[in-house]
């Protein structure tokens, strides 16, 4: 399983660096890539203008068919807007939410995420 993520202040990158999976960071410099295997997205939470590159990536060529789940990094102070980016992606693309966590996540969040990915199957450990 490949992890596709974006980050603006580095928290999501710090989370994915704790995972035993191969990761691909989306950025305006590297917004798209044709996928040939299953992936999950880890999304920070910001206005759509900032996270739209995630949707563009999923919509690129055949990528939608390999998109299997989403996790969200956010801040509970945003109350009802907590991790809305990941929740919106789950709804829009009809995929499960694997985990929701604050900032770069705790050990517990990492465990939950790994178990979630394993339950989706097709794990491919790089370590
Ligand atoms: C301008 C701004 C808006 C944000 N809006 C939300 C929000 O609506 N909901 C939420 O849960 N977190 C929100 N956050 C918190 C970030 O999503 C959170 O800190 C996340 O860990 C950042 O990930 P990143 O460092 O990978 O970019 C916001 C942060 C900033 C700076």
Automatic annotation (TrEMBL):
It comes from the Bacteria. GO terms for molecular function: FMN binding. Pfam families: Flavodoxin_NdrI. Gene3D superfamilies: 3.40.50.360. PANTHER family: PROTEIN NRDI (PTHR37297). NCBIfam families: nrdI. This is Ribonucleotide reductase stimulatory protein. It comes from Brochothrix campestris FSL F6-1037. The gene is nrdI.
């Amino acid at each position: 399983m490949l992890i596709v993520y974006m980050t603006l202040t580095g928290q999501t990158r710090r989370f994915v660096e704790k995972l035993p999976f191969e990761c691909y960071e989306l950025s305006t410099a590297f917004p798209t890539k044709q996928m040939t295997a299953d992936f999950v997205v880890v999304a920070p939470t910001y206005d759509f203008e900032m996270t739209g590159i995630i949707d563009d990536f999923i919509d690129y060529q055949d990528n939608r068919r390999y998109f299997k789940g989403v996790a969200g990094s956010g801040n509970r102070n945003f109350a009802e807007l907590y991790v809305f980016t990941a929740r919106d992606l789950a709804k829009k693309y009809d995929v499960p939410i694997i985990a929701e966590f604050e900032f770069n996540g705790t050990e517990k969040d990492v465990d939950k995420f790994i178990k979630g990915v394993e339950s989706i199957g097709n794990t491919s450990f790089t370590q």
